[in-house]
Structure formats: C-alpha cells, structure tokens
Specification:
The structure is a single chain. By secondary structure, the protein is mostly helical. The protein has a domain of 47 residues. Helices cover 62% and strands 0% of the residues. The protein has 2 helices and no strands. The termini are far apart. Keywords: DNA-binding, Transcription, Transcription regulation. Pfam families: HLH. InterPro entries: bHLH_dom, HLH_DNA-bd_sf, TAL-like. GO terms for molecular function: DNA-binding transcription factor activity, RNA polymerase II-specific; protein dimerization activity; RNA polymerase II cis-regulatory region sequence-specific DNA binding.
C-alpha cells in the first residue's frame, strides 16, 4: 500500500521549516513577547490619537475658538 506513515509525506525542507517555527516561537520568553506587544499597542494608540488630533484640526468649529468634545 502506498499510504504509509503520514510523517513520510512531509519533505525534509518542510520538517525543518516547522522545527524553526517551533523554536522561534518558544525561544522568546513570555516577558519579552509581552514587552513587544505592549510597545506595539502603545504605538498603535499614539497613531490613532494623532489621527484624531489631525481630524479635529481639520473639522471647522462654531464658534471658531471652541474645542470639539468627544461627543461632537
């Protein structure tokens, strides 16, 4: 029968790539991943806040010296 061990269907290159993925995921400690994730979220939040600040700058207000609230 040509169907034997499913492991034999995987090429050596695929096996090595899977091994490298496993090692790369496990090689970074949880704390390092958490620091990286927090940094990325901080950058994302600053980007969103900057976009809203730019939008507030572009939207006309009445009277001109008033500031937009979160509800406006």
């Amino acid at each position: 029968c040509w169907i034997s061990d499913p492991e034999s269907w995987i090429t050596p290159r695929q096996r090595e790539a899977a091994r490298e993925r496993r090692l790369s995921d496990d090689s970074r400690p949880r704390v390092v991943r958490q620091i990286f994730t927090n940094s990325r979220e901080r950058w994302r939040q600053q980007s969103v806040n900057g976009a809203f600040a730019e939008l507030r700058r572009l939207i006309p207000t009445h009277p001109p010296d008033s500031k937009l609230s979160k509800n406006d």
